[in-house]
Write a structure and sequence with these properties.
six-stranded antiparallel beta barrel; alpha+beta; six-stranded mixed β-sheet; elongated
């Protein structure tokens, strides 16, 4: 089809504002999917996506409407996948911004709008869920007008669930969004906005052809990774794969390749062909770097090989996943994995447990730290147990994030207090009608575990949070170690700011006291910085009544038996082993 009859657009919104439902209605109204095949969240292929009601992997689909090809990309709404969203925006000329008429503008809405503006896209504002009793159309409309500077008539009011007003959105896509303006005769350049591994076919790329064309059987090359392969099949998604002889400039489609791993074809890379080779790469490619790390250990050491195989299979289709083997004296052999955020970690854990039937112990998530050594070298560590000797360290730098929180005005005080408690610094406070936008900076490590839960608690569920990684800053950081019965448990070690170390040590020691079972001898639980203990709790021993078999006689008989028991307990304390349950390794995930 000629470029002036093609429209490429994506749907952007905060989580649960109705992106996938709107995509369902569009496919239904354009007869892309028959009523018999239709199901809710049609583009969400994973069981996890359906259960959680969120989009994890983006999905493109081609629809026919008014003699036009409409290429839609349904993007994830969660902050962990914002890089995927930014690449999807690069593949489009327009974006449909969906805002919930009852909830209004949220933090992720703002973040996605800024990404769309940076990509110079035409934004079509859509007010969804107008049929809900709680919908406040005038208030949310004025919020959108303030944000985009558009007029009231530009906002399309719809209900994606009932289909009311969805044809107006399709008409607006055709009329307001510009057609692609690629050069059909120029050397081939295509942007990869997603890639995944298929067990039977190899790596499949989702691409936007910017210039030139890709034909079936072409020899292709990835410009950032220098990997080369063959386009075994090309075509469009409607929403199932529909094979075609070629993909032309301006079109969005898929390429089935003979590559064996997505590491050869990363999101944001440029594809070119040997036949019409180019040297100019498309802008914006960057290597996605994980910044949350956690140790995954099988409950039984016999499952270590299965765990390793499972993670290797998952990493074939998730190029952001990075892992390396890890060994712990307490937990045995395991794998340390890097993630884009806590939701990403949660999804990988659930997939390993469900799809590969693994029982796992997951250690507390931590971030990476940059260490400047006395000899001038810089090293990166991904867990506290890797910290070198403190006498050889000049400074330790930790990652800080730039965050934005949107809350109703009445909750501002509580949110500011929460930010201060996390060692954060408030930068700016502005108002969008009845809502406040708080911009702040804070150390990532302090927000990893329970910040989101605390924010929801402080704001009665109305607060929304979005962040991006900032710079690394040198801070007074120390390693806090934990000892159980005199033995250091390295899997529990954490990095903390010196001012927070004592409170953290006391909290964790008290938590361990609750989860570690009592023994026949007294067990000391201690927190330490280097050689100095900063917190302690004792797990009292079980007392077995050894005098029950004694009847009458002199009191010395009783004393003799009790002395023998005390002697045995002393010996047990020296040689006894404490079995640490798996819950002990996740005590910091929920500190309250």
């Amino acid at each position: 089809m000629t470029q002036d009859h093609i429209r490429n657009f994506c749907i952007i919104a905060h989580i649960d504002h109705g992106k996938s439902t709107l995509a369902d209605r569009m496919m239904e109204m354009t007869d892309t999917v028959s009523t018999r095949e239709m199901k809710s969240q049609m583009l969400d292929s994973m069981d996890l996506e359906r259960e959680k009601g969120i989009t994890i992997k983006l999905a493109p689909v081609r629809m026919k409407y008014r003699d036009h090809d409409l290429n839609l990309i349904d993007t994830p709404g969660h902050v962990d996948f914002s890089y995927e969203v930014s690449r999807s925006l690069q593949a489009c000329e327009g974006a449909v911004l969906v805002v919930d008429a009852s909830q209004g503008i949220q933090a992720q809405t703002l973040a996605n709008v800024y990404l769309a503006m940076a990509a110079d896209l035409t934004i079509i504002p859509v007010l969804n869920k107008i049929d809900l009793p709680a919908a406040d159309v005038p208030r949310v409309s004025s919020e959108i007008i303030n944000l985009l500077g558009c007029s009231e008539s530009d906002i399309i009011k719809i209900s994606a669930k009932t289909g009311d007003g969805v044809t107006d959105v399709l008409d607006a896509v055709v009329e307001r969004i510009a057609a692609p303006h690629g050069q059909p005769d120029a050397p081939t350049r295509a942007l990869i906005f997603d890639s995944y591994y298929d067990d039977y076919r190899g790596v499949i790329l989702y691409v936007r052809i910017v210039d030139g064309e890709v034909r079936k059987g072409d020899a292709i090359e990835m410009m950032a990774t220098n990997a080369s392969g063959i386009a075994l099949e090309v075509g469009s998604l409607q929403p199932t794969m529909f094979s075609e002889p070629d993909l032309l400039a301006g079109e969005i489609g898929y390429i089935v390749t003979n590559l064996r791993t997505t590491r050869d074809a990363r999101v944001g890379d440029t594809v070119t062909t040997k036949r019409a080779h180019t040297d100019s790469q498309l802008p914006g490619y960057k290597l996605v770097k994980p910044f949350v790390y956690a140790g995954f250990f099988p409950v039984s050491n016999d499952d270590y090989q299965n765990l390793k195989d499972a993670i290797e299979k998952l990493s074939l289709s998730d190029s952001a996943l990075q892992f390396e083997p890890e060994n712990s004296p307490v937990l045995g052999f395991g794998v340390r994995i890097g993630f884009l955020g806590l939701l990403h970690m949660d999804i990988i854990r659930e997939r390993l447990e469900r799809e590969y039937n693994l029982d796992l112990v997951v250690t507390n998530p931590s971030t990476d730290y940059q260490i400047k050594m006395v000899n001038g070298h810089d090293i990166d560590i991904k867990s506290a147990s890797e910290l070198p000797d403190v006498t050889k360290i000049v400074e330790i730098r930790e990652p800080w994030i730039k965050g934005e929180i949107i809350v109703p005005k009445s909750y501002v005080g509580g949110v500011l207090q929460l930010i201060i408690n996390k060692r954060g610094q408030q930068n700016n406070l502005s108002y969008i009608d009845e809502r406040a936008l708080i911009s702040f900076e804070a150390p990532l490590a302090n927000l990893l575990t329970d910040f989101y839960d605390q924010l929801k608690s402080v704001t009665s569920g109305y607060g929304s949070f979005n962040y991006e990684l900032g710079m690394y800053r040198a801070e007074d950081l120390v390693r806090v170690d934990f000892y159980v019965a005199g033995n250091m448990v390295d899997a529990l070690s954490v990095m903390a700011h010196r001012s927070e170390a004592q409170r953290l040590g006391r909290e964790v020691v008290d938590k361990l006291k609750e989860v570690i079972p009592r023994q026949n001898f007294q067990v000391a639980l201690q927190a330490a910085i280097g050689g100095k203990f900063i917190a302690r709790a004792d797990l009292s021993a079980y007392r077995k009544d050894v005098t029950t078999g004694l009847y009458g006689g002199d009191v010395s008989r009783k004393k003799k038996v009790l002395a023998k028991q005390a002697k045995g307990k002393k010996r047990m304390k020296r040689f006894g082993k404490v079995d640490i349950p798996s819950e002990a390794f996740t005590v910091m995930l929920k500190r309250d």
